[in-house]
Write a structure and sequence with these properties.
Elements: H1 13-19, H2 23-28, H3 32-54, H4 63-77, H5 93-100, H6 102-112, H7 125-134
Helix pairs in contact: 3-4, 6-7
């Protein structure tokens, strides 16, 4: 098995050290808009200050790309505690009866169809399934 090369971060260790103090404030924000505002109005200016000090004269920082990069990096590395989905599994009573008592349901289907025995191979059994589960 070949070892994989670690992916390079967008930001250097020095830049990440500048960003790190803002993590608690960012994660404490209540809305996505507030988190974006913190990233753009507090975190990004500290990085831009560092970059401007290191830039040769005459070069300009692409602030649009820088803001996209910081937002992407933060969203990837500073995960919120809640999950993306709040969906809950809803199981119906009829599904539980079907899963646990198929043999009894097939017996009831046989009674409804006036047969001695019913299985999944019996023609038309599915149309009687819900009625049989209800009885």
């Amino acid at each position: 098995m070949a070892s994989s090369i670690p992916r390079k971060s967008i930001f250097t260790a020095e830049e990440r050290a500048l960003i790190r103090p803002f993590q608690a404030t960012y994660l404490a924000a209540k809305s996505s808009a507030a988190r974006k505002d913190i990233a753009i109005t507090t975190i990004l200016p500290s990085l831009i200050g560092k970059w401007e000090a290191e830039l040769p004269p005459g070069e300009v920082i692409d602030t649009d790309q820088a803001s996209k990069n910081i937002l992407m990096w933060i969203r990837n590395n500073w995960r919120l505690g809640d999950s993306a989905s709040k969906a809950k599994l809803r199981v119906k009573r009829t599904d539980i009866i079907w899963m646990l008592h198929q043999d009894r349901v097939f017996q009831e289907i046989a009674k409804l169809k006036n047969l001695t025995e019913a299985t999944s191979a019996t023609p038309g059994w599915f149309q009687f399934r819900m009625k049989a589960i209800g009885q």
